[in-house]
Structure formats: structure tokens, C-alpha cells
Amino acid sequence: MKKVHIKSYGCQMNVYDSQRMGDLLAPLGYEAAGEPEDADLIILNTCHIREKAAEKVYSELGKLRRLKEERRGNDRAPVIAVAGCVAQAEGEEIVRRQKAVDLVFGPQTYHRLPQLLKAHAISGKPVVETEFPAEDKFEHLAKAMPKRGVTAFLTVQEGCDKFCTFCVVPYTRGSEFSRPVAQIEAEARALVEAGVREVTLLGQNVNAYHGAGPDGENWPLARLITHLSRIDGMERLRFTTSHPRDMSDDLIAAHAETSKLMPYLHLPIQAGSDRILKDMNRGHSAEDYLKLIARIRKARPDIALSGDFIVGFPGESEADFEATLAIVRAARYASAFSFKYSPRPGTPAAEMAAQVPDEVKSDRLARLQALLGTQQQAFNQACLGREMPILLEKPGRHPGQMVGRSPYLQSVYIDAGTHGIGDMVNVTIDAVGSNSLSAHIQA
Ligand code: 5AD
Ligand code: SF4
């Protein structure tokens, strides 16, 4: 048996891609290695979204080079591969900068991994493959679905045509593409067969989904969700990430009508100032966003709202930043991610004058995160004493304890008694910690 170690950075789509790479390698005799030291093949599935994410890759590669040199003597030098969005963006530059790298391939070419490994074994030279192929990579992924956990990701849409001025995604993942319904359904059924109970449908712009349906029409996401919710054994569905401009009425209605669709919505606004939103090319105002979430809450009053924020976008004044704090106060988030603006080569915002100094960004990020932290705590506190179904995912810290997910994506610790992984149990929430809840099973 050969061993592969895959390390995933960045978004959930990368987690999905890493899993699929593992599936592709299994028929070639590779099993998973917990540590890079034990592996014959090491893959870094990288993220290019912010500068820090890309830098991490080069520092990790420095460590892997030393590992490779140490093991060269005993003939077990590992093959080192860089996959994902840094690979897509930097291509040949990676093998120039780090000689230990053997393979470089982007998010649209990883289905060719077996051929790339072969080409490298024959030539002994680095192989770089970052073209966007015309074929559908999903058609070429491994059909066999090894055993999965209770929850899984399923990519249904990739790429983005929105061109927010700060973002590399349209360049690394390419233009928007939706997988056909039948292909997604087959994968969802295979996941359920492999033990999965909760599926999160993924896309950079997932609510723009418009895949070909079996009836020849393009299906919107709401219709796909209703369709998948009818699969026996599929207990819960989620989707992420959504753009406010594509939040259609039928998708809002699905949150009221489809009981298997969980009450959680990741709907980034990025900033609260209309001037900044315009410079970001978001295509919506702060007021549009507030009106939209009012409609969503009307359909599903208990929805857990989540979002992403960028502080220190070029030209952001103190007043602009305060508009971000104001939108957060008005929208009330259950959880959120927030970042300092990071200029990305080739994106329009990187060229804008009036870049904001790092100290200002750090100060604003701390203030925003303090507010978001208070909101998260308030959302969790409001769950105290409430009853809700929990899907058990894995063992907890103590004997007999298990961890599951609430409908709102919170981690919940429970004394599970005779219940096991994959069970859905009704609980009452007893206590609220900083990052998790605890509960007891209802008699
Ligand atoms: N700098 C900082 N944050 C960014 N994001 C995307 N591009 C950048 C950038 N250049 C954030 C956005 C997006 C999330 C995935 O990452 O908030 O929603
Ligand atoms: Fe990072 Fe974006 Fe690539 Fe995901 S798609 S890995 S967030 S750059």
C-alpha cells in the first residue's frame, strides 16, 4: 500500500475537492496517511483568497522540502503536489520558487491526478497543469464512494461571474458552472448509501445554481433542494455560499416549506457603506440587504443568519466602517467571518488608490469582531431551554458523551446513552458555552 496525505486550506469547496482526490487515488492503491512523514504522496490543496493564505503554502513547502531531503537517502522521498487556487494562480512560478515540488494542478484539473502522477513518474520532472479543460471534471471523478461520516459536502456549482473587485475567485475557479441535476442526485444517493445524513450543497455562488434538469429545463436551487429532500435517508440539507442578488423568492419560500432544509443561511454583505459596496461592485445597497433579510425572517423567523465582512477596503473611512457596524446591529448575526482587506494581484481593488493602513484595519477588525462575538453569544443564549433535534456526529470529550449539530449549525454536547453516530435525538438545551452548547435528551 502507498500512502497519501492531503492537507486542505481555505473554503469548503477545497475540503470537497480533497475528498474527491482521495477517492481517485484509492483505486491506485493509496490509503490515507495521518502525517506527511508517513506519506509517499503529499498534496497541499491551497487557497489564494488572502495573501496570508497563499504565504502559508510557501512556508509549508519549505518544511516539506526538508522532509523530502531527509528521506531521499532511504529511497522513500515523497512526491509533493500543490493543488487548488494558489496552483491555479501561480502555476509554473511555484516550481521555480520551490524546487521540491513535483506536481502543480488547479481546481479544474484534479480529476487528471492519476495521469499526472504517471507523467511525473516517467519523466522525473515537475508537471504543471493549470488549463481549464473543456471536459466536465465531475464526469471523470471516481464513481466508488468509500464510507463517509454523517455529514458531507457536495459541490453543485462552481466559479463566479460577479467580479467583486476584491476577489480572486473568478480567476482561480473560472466562470459560473452548474452541475446537471441527475449527476448531483446520483452523488447524493451514493452519499446517503455511504452513511451520510446531512448534505451541504456547495458553490461559490450556490444560489445562482441553474443546472440542467431531467425535464430539459434549467432548475433553480430551490427545486434541486426539494428534489434531493425526497431521497430516503437524507435527513438534512444546507447550502452555502449565497449572494444577496440571487436570493430568489422560491429559495426564501423553501426555508418555510421544506422541513429538511435547515434554518441557517450564510449571506455575506461584506460592508455596510453604500459607497464601499459600489466600489466593491456588489450590485446591492445596505438597504436592499436589510429588506431581503426581513423577507427571509418572515418566511423562517428563527433562521440563523451568517455572513462575511471585509474591513479596510480601499477608501474605507471611519464613517464607512461605522456603517458596517450599523448593518451588523440591524441584521443580527448568529455567526460571521470577518477579514482585513488583502490586495490580490490582478484584481481591480488592488490597484485602487487610498489603501488603508494595516493598523487601521486591525483596529476596525477588533471592533467588528467584538460586536459579532456579542451577537453570537446572544443567539446562543436565546437557545437556552429550547427543544431541538440534534444529529449525532462523533464522540465527545468524556465517556458516553457525543457531539452533534443543531439545526442552526451549533455544536451540541450530549450524554447520549445508547444513541450512536447518525442518530437524530430530541434534546433540551441546558447550557451555553463560548463555542458550543450542552443539552440533555428528552425523556
Ligand atoms: N481580502 C479579504 N477578504 C477577502 N474575501 C474575499 N476576498 C478577499 C480579500 N481580497 C473574503 C470575503 C469572502 C470570503 C470568502 O473571503 O468576505 O466572502
Ligand atoms: Fe480560497 Fe476561493 Fe479558492 Fe476557496 S475558491 S480555496 S476560498 S481562493
Give the gist of this structure.
This protein is α/β, with parallel strands linked by helices and 443 residues long.
How would you sum up this structure, described in words?
The chain is of the alpha/beta class. It has 3 domains: 2-129, 3-Layer(aba) Sandwich (Rossmann fold); 137-382, tm_1862 like domain (pyruvate-formate lyase- activating enzyme); 387-441, OB fold (Dihydrolipoamide Acetyltransferase, E2P). The protein is built from 13 helices and 21 strands. It has helices spanning 12-25, 51-72, 84-90, 92-97, 113-123, 169-172, 181-193, 221-229, 249-257, 274-279, 286-299, 318-331, 358-381; strands at residues 2-8, 30-32, 41-46, 79-83, 103-105, 127-129, 151-155, 157-158, 177-178, 198-202, 210-212, 218-220, 236-240, 264-266, 304-311, 335-340, 387-395, 401-405, 411-415, 424-432, 436-441. The strands form 6 sheets. The protein has a 6-stranded parallel sheet with strand order 2-1-3-4-5-6, with helices on both faces. The protein has a 5-stranded mixed beta barrel with strand order 17-18-19-21-20. A 3-stranded parallel sheet has the order 7-10-13. Helix 8 (221-229) packs parallel to helix 9 (249-257) and helix 12 (318-331) packs parallel to helix 13. The longest helix is centred in the last third of the chain and has 24 residues, at 358-381. The relative contact order is 0.08. The mean pLDDT is 95. Iron/sulfur cluster binds next to helix 1, helix 3 and helix 6.
